[in-house]
Amino acid sequence: MLRILDAIPVKLLALMVMGLLFLSLEVGYRLSHRKPGLDDASALQASVLGLVALLLAFSFSMAADRYSLRRALVVKESNAIGTLYLRLGFLPEPSRGETRAWLRRYTDLRLEGYEAMGDPALFATKLQESESLETKLWSRLEVLAPRVEAPVLILVTQAMNDVFDVSDERLAAAHNLIPTTIFVLLLVGMLGSGVLLGYRPDAKLRGLLSWTLFVVILTAVMFTLLDLDLSTRGRIRVDQQPLRSLQEQLRAHP
To answer: pLDDT digits over 161-182, tens only?
Structure first.
């Protein structure tokens, strides 16, 4: 799905889906006049529309769960960085000031990266820089380990591990999407329902108003679902306010 969205702009893809839906309605309308006699068309319409509604509800539930997880991970990362920043105060100078400065820069990179998720190249650059800082922080802790008391070392190590772990969790959550198979099945169901809704042997004219409402509403629902699920491409983004608040706190108390 991401490859398709990378190759085709979302607006153009939405227009293509709308075109396919109108085409399916037209196919159903022409079939109804060329080969009438599908007595159970209304029953099939109800069944297919029910199936599409079920798939939409299931997909929205999955996307909403992923969105909630991504929001929770922002708070978790903010808390983890804040805890590590406080525990770095146990280290002796000059390592204390240096590691805290690195952690402030790390927070800036994390925030800048996730606010620029719409730009894959910039996101990858910020992520790589933050990973480099993770390596520097851990290396400095390894150098200090022989000179730091065991209880302090344990506290700082645990806090640093939490920061690194939540970083990996956020990256995994950003790429954890609804399977493409579900979207394909949903599209097939939408096109099938279009054919059945267009199948009207008794109608002499096409129901353009009802067709337009059906196409617009179904396309809007599908692409709202895509927006909710695609954290790197959609318009619905996770608010990074917890990290912004932490950034201000760290700058105010260096």
So the answer is: 999 999 999 988 888 877 878 8
Q: How far apart are CA 193 and CA 25, in angstroms?
A: 8
- How much is the pTM? 0.81
pLDDT digits (tens, 9 = 90+) for 183-242: 888 888 888 888 888 877 776 777 788 888 888 988 888 888 887 877 666 677 888 999
Which residue in 173, 174, 164, 172 sits closest to 103, CA to CA?
Answer: 164
| Phi then psi dihedrals of residue 233, to 5 deg | -125, -25
